[in-house]
Amino acid sequence: MITTLALARFRLRPVPWGWLAVLTAGWLLLTELLVAVPRDPQVGVVVVRWAALLLGLGGVVLAAPETDPPRDLLRAVPVPRWRTLALRLAGWLALGALAVLVLAVRLDGTAGWTAADLVRGALPNFLLATAAGFLAASLTSVLGGGAAAMAAMMGLDTAGRAWPAGFPIQLRSLPGGPYWQVSRVWMVGLSLALVTVALLLEARADTRVGLPRRRRPTARPSPASQARARP
Amino acid sequence: MIALFGIEARHLARSPLLWLAFALAAALAALEMSWYLPALAGDDLLAYTSGGLLLSGGAVLAGAWLGLRDRVSGAADLVAVTPTAPWRLWRARLGSVAVAAAGVFSVGFAAALAVSVVRGGRGTPDLRLLADGALAVVLGGWVGLAVGRVSGSRMVAVLAAPVWVVLCFLAMAGPSLRGISLSVQYLSPVLNPQNRSAAYGLLPDPLWPHLGYLLGLTGLVGVLLLALAARASSQRIPLRLLLVVAAAGLVLVVTSAVRLVALPDDVLVLGPDRASWQPVYGESNPQAEALFADPNWSFPADDQARACTRDAGVSVCVYPAYGQRLARDMHAAIAPVARLFTGLPGAPTLVRMVPVGMGSCTNAEAQVPEAWVREPAGRSDQQTRSFYRGVYLDCALGLHPGGSGHLAEAGEAVELWALLASGEVTREALQGMGRDAEAGHGSTAASVAALAMAELPTEQVRAELAPVWTRLRAGTLALAELPGQRP
Questions:
Q1: B294 against B168, higher pLDDT
Q2: How many CB atoms lie within 10 A of CB B399?
Q3: A26 part of contact set with chain B, CB < 8 Å
């Protein structure tokens, strides 16, 4: 148990979690303040949804080369690095999702949006931005990943506006609208695909470094154990 | 120094961050432009707003990367011991960011105008928008430099760009913010003017004071960065020059900001004479709405709509910025129905583009507000033609185009007959409309009456309509009194 915890801490440690927690808390407070600023509550909802995209940018530090400078060294340790990244991602998603949930509960009823609608409207945005940033940062850097994630979001928004009937991801869709459900499904699906690609690429990189594959323990005793068994 | 400047400028010009923003800005500008009729005096604003905001965000990122580079690459110590004074190095960097940022914006702006020309846009673009957008992007780049230099954090650098864009957005949304009565929207580094006429320009026009405001802000950020660089060095900086630039920047920012926030949110052009223009504060102006709803109000003659297409029945005149093609298209849609009503009292002989209003109809002139025509977003060609015809027909049949009234049944029947007789609607379609009407949409009687009128020769219908025309326009004519109706 202690070994597992120590290992988890080792995997999580290089990421500035304290900084990310402060960022998330600051995001929560600032977004709540900004929502109250526009006269039209609908604009407040738009602010929440775009703020969720912004929060997702925090995901770029999880996999960026700058976070683990000796990447090749880490790739050579027995535990595959993709598991480290997956663990970090899970931690960040939990942190970010918690902030989105708290915000949604606090803003329940804004412009007729229930907390559940707000969660459905903002959480996929957060997830997609995180996934895009996670993949892009693992291939480039914190700055490159952040820029690519932002560009992807802007690109998706522009594509959604250009093809309002044909493009599956509509960042501006509204609850009850024809593309609301489909958009949510596509965004979650695309996020999962991006994360899977990032982890697969990392797993392949592990293999290229020459990491010995872990073998399952076999029923047949090894020669060493046989030797010890001898009287 | 020049070599250093050249190296940094080339480096930045190859920055994927800046070009990523450029690609997005180009896509957004292309999308926005596709929603509007092409006009150089209009597309320049679209290129400015969509390009300016995204490119300034990209410039923040690229600048932040440059500000961080020494620290990230481990060259900070090396740079510190070179004989070149750090402030000179930073001066070269500021210059390179300025050249690259302004260059990228200029390329985008020129490309947008070229596309507009190819699509048929005419008129004179406002080159102050180019200067303003370039300055806004330069300011973004310099702010990014400052963020990278001061924070030294990659994450802060990443977040700086969206925060910058969000701040610009919030400032742009000035009139819709709670508790703010000043026009703070003009303090955003990138403007988002809502009212632009191809003939009357930006309403109101904040560009001159905004240019001063941006120039002052850029100067202040530049001075701040040079002072920061000089602080860590023993080599002297021309302090007097810096102080002069800082003081001039501050004066420019304050005086320009005061002028900007005093501007109205909108200006209502009620005639060619500037004295008649009314400032609008807030989102709506009840006075203007009341004025436009008045059926007797019309925009005075201003000789601005000079691109005309005419025949014996009707002339269509639009602003030259939209080109002769728009006048031809509108005329082609209107002429077939106009021929049927030529000579009848009150039937428009001129359809003229005006900058404001809800459409008006006086003295045989139908006025079409520029915004209605310029924004065909979401309308098919068929719908656009139908819209042009509608402006004429409403006017001819005595309906105030912007009003909330409806045609009387007789007026509706004559409208349907005109569409049928001009070949815009087929008999089958009209019979289908009759069936729809039975299901609750529109009037069956009007469709039946229109079909009965269509049985007669067009000239006979015209001749029989002439004596009852005034009553028809007044809405007092009964359906049974129309030509071809059985008693």
A1: B168
A2: 22
A3: no
SS (H, E, C) chain A: CHHHHHHHHHHHCCCCHHHHHHHHHHHHHHHHHHHCCECCHHHHHHHHHHHHHHHHHHHHHHHCCCCCCCHHHHHCCCCCHHHHHHHHHHHHHHHHHHHHHHHHHHCCCHHHCCHHHHHHHHHHHHHHHHHHHHHHHHHCCHHHHHHHHHHHHHHHHHHHHHCCCCCCCCCCCCCCCCCHHHHHHHHHHHHHHHHHHHHHHHHHHHHHHCCCCCCCCCCCCCHHHHHHHCC
- Residues from B contacting A (CB-CB < 8 Å) are 16-17, 20-21, 23-24, 27-28, 31, 34, 54, 57-58, 61, 64-65, 68, 72, 154-155, 157-159, 161-162, 166, 170, 173, 176-178
- Test A141 with B154 for CB contact under 8 angstroms: yes
Interface predicted TM-score (ipTM) of this complex, two decimals: 0.78
Q: Calculate the CA B281 to chain-centre distance.
A: 19
Say what the pTM is: 0.85
> Could you give the CA distance from residue B159 to residue A54 in angstroms, rounded to a whole number?
8
Owning domain of residue A172: 12-210
Neighbours of A185 (CB within 10 A): 13
Q: List pLDDT tens digits, range A156-203.
A: 999 998 888 889 999 988 888 888 999 999 999 999 999 999 999 988
Domains identified in chain A, total number: 1
* Domain annotation covers residue A4: no
Cα–Cα dist B440/B443, whole Å: 8
Which of the residues A68, A143, A157, A172 would you substitute to probe the B interface, choosing the one with the greatest number of B C-beta atoms within 10 Å? A143
Mean pLDDT of chain B: 87
Residues B442-449, mean pLDDT to the nearest whole number: 78
Instruction: Supply φ then ψ for residue A206, to 5 degrees.
Output: -55, -45
Answer yes or no: is A228 within a domain: no
B406: three-class secondary structure by DSSP: coil
Q: How far apart are CA B332 and CA A105, in angstroms?
A: 57
Q: What is the mean pLDDT of residues B448-465?
A: 90
The pLDDT score that the predictor gives to residue A228 is: 45
Q: Could you tell me if residue A1 is inside a domain?
A: no
A36, A147, A155: residue with CB nearest B61: A147
- In tens, the pLDDT along B369-414 reads 998 888 776 778 888 899 899 889 989 988 765 555 667 788 889 9
- Cα B222 to Cα A161, B61, B218: the distances in Å are 38, 17, 6
pLDDT of residue A7: 66
Question: Which residue is closest to B178 within chain A, CA to CA?
Answer: A39
B334, two tokens = 């209107």
Beta-strand relationship, B307-310 and B350-354: unpaired
pLDDT level of residue A216 (50, 70, 90 thresholds) = low
User: How far is B172 from chain A, CA to nearest CA, in Å?
Assistant: 12
3-state secondary structure of B316: strand
Residue A128 lies in a domain: yes
